Amino acid sequence: MKDPVSTWLDKLAKALSQHDLGGAAALFGEECYWRDLVAFTWTIKTFEGRDEIRAMLAATLAATRPTGFVPLGAVATENGVTEAWFGFETVVGRGTGHLRLKNGKGWTLLTTLQELKGHEEKAGRARERGVEHGVHPDRRSWLERRRLELEELGTARQPYVLIVGGGQGGLALAARLKRLGVPALVIEKNERAGDSWRKRYRSLVLHDPVWYDHMPYLPYPDHWPMFTPKDKMGDWLEMYARVMELDVWTSAKCVKADWHESAGEWRVQVNRGGQLVILRPRQLVLATGMSGFPQMPAIPGAEMFAGHLCHSSQFDSGETWRGRNCVILGANNSAHDIAADLWEHGANEVTMVQRSSTVVVTSEALMEHAWGRLYSEQALESGVTTEIADLTVAAVPFKLLPSFQKPIYEAIRKRDASLYEGLSQAGFLYDFGEDGSGIHSTYLRRGAGYYIDVGASQLVVDGSIKLKSPAEISRIAERSVLLTDGSVLPADLIVFATGYGPMNQWAAELISPEVAARVGKCWGLGSDTRHDPGPWEGELRNMWKPTQQPGLWFMGGNLMQARHYSLYLALQLKARYEAIPAPVYFVDEVHHRA
Asked: Between 161 and which of 69, 283, 349, 501 could a Cys-Cys bridge form, CB atoms 3.0 to 4.6 Å apart?
């Protein structure tokens, strides 16, 4: 007798092969979700409810022609939910999916495109030989061929894809495209790949664990520290670019980009070490991170300040501020890290000015209750590979994520009750997200508003880091700041840990304000929570998928997202490079222009 997953998949395959849209939709429950990562729709989209699923299938089945739905691995049942992985094929590619059943009906379905038929990556038994045996006059060595490639790039040979930004997102995508044989060039304004990490404040260490932060193809060695220092991260990215033979121009700044509709290409002006170069890529990817420019609030009196005032992105080290008075505006990750660094270096007084509530969770609690099940040594030992972990995360529709996360944060609240009691007594405003769903939901909704506690919270609790909350800086004087609560703080250093603007600011800066408005806001789900206005969209706006501007893509997010979603963006670009039909189901409507 077949298991329920096999039975359900057989029914789905039959309905799809017969173009029986009603029959396919009827396999799903009243509450149901189908999340598709490129496989059916050539975009990233979640469909909620039978009507949306039926409409999607009506538009995509003829071009997709899915077959071969086969369960992969064991079927598991827990709390009335049966789930399993499965493989499938479309007319152009092969995919991996995940199914959850409730009462025999489809609850959540994930479909992901993993490779294109006839364009598989050359790996394993299909790897390149690296040498042509025999005697060949005028043979070029690998180094000579590589140097020639780099010399011709941008002159005799144009990149099909130009990637602006050489951080983890740009390099991850470049690696995927290299393996797929798509000519791609990364331009990085800094002197070295990885400098976007090296140039951050001295004490910065990744708050995510090592198992969460691998780059595609090259996992960290097994002695790598659990939490990576920022300079070590920078060196790894620089090494990664060399070992993966990525085409990267450093000290190369994108000056201006214009889309030429008739030619179907971009004209991009690049200042490369003082020389202006014109590139003509077909596809332009802004991999400048998930944020825009540093936000510097305009506060009266700032021009009169006799000390040093900077944004957190410009802060270097607490070493030069020993014995001095320091004020930090903001209370999220960077603010806590910088405050702790100043305290460790013997600043006379460090005061954090908290404007609004912050989600606070200890790193240890996240490892125990959130990351550990998927991203840990124990997870690897139980057979949960990085790829399985990434797909498991992807298999939870964003609409359901809060309900999956709330029990986790209820457990964390109890686990670290003494810490939260101490924060309350210190006057620190903390929460677990507007709906109690914690850091992960907050990150997806707004990309800020949280602190992963690695020690600074205790400094707030015991008063080593002083706190003004809730408060704002209303005026800056020569050597002090006046707060909205009427208090005055002496200040030699003021750090604005006030975050960044939206990512489409880069489009406005590099292309035009009109194009930035056309593509609209980047990031956020439309959850109608603070800093994430509705309507509900169900996916991150504009990320890793077609936008309202032809040939323009956005690549951003943390290391895990760079690793996972770079695959789907690379496959979309590969299809266009090879002229493989890739009909996009639809490009999301723009609701927010800035």
From this structure: 283
CB neighbour list of residue 524: distance below 8 Å, 6 or more residues apart: 444, 445, 446, 447, 531, 532, 533, 537, 540, 541
Q: Are strands 105-116 and 161-164 parallel, antiparallel or unpaired?
A: unpaired
DSSP line for 75-133: EEEETTEEEEEEEEE-SSEEEEEEEEEETTEEEEEEEEEEEETT-----GGG---S---
Amino acid at site 166: G
Q: Model pTM? A: 0.96
> Which stretches within 187-268 are classed as H helix?
195-198, 230-243
The gap from C-alpha 479 to its chain's centroid, in whole angstroms, comes to 40
What does R_g of the chain's alpha carbons equal in angstroms?
Answer: 25
- The SS3 call for residue 216 is coil
Contact 46, 34 (CB under 8 A): yes
> How remote is the C-alpha of 315 from its chain's centroid?
24
Instruction: Report CA-CA distances (Å) from 241 to 17, 71, 216, 565.
Output: 44, 37, 12, 18
From CA 357, how far away is CA 367, in angstroms rounded?
A: 23
Spatial distance between the Cα atoms of 108 and 102, rounded to a whole number of angstroms: 9
Q: Which residues contact 590 (CB under 8 A, 6 or more apart)?
A: 518, 519, 520, 521, 548
DSSP 548: S
Provide the sign of the torsion angle of the four alpha carbons 23, 24, 29, 31, taken in this order: negative
DSSP 360: E
Cα 583 to Cα 150, 477, 534, 573, distances in angstroms: 34, 59, 27, 13
Contact 290, 445 (CB under 8 A): no
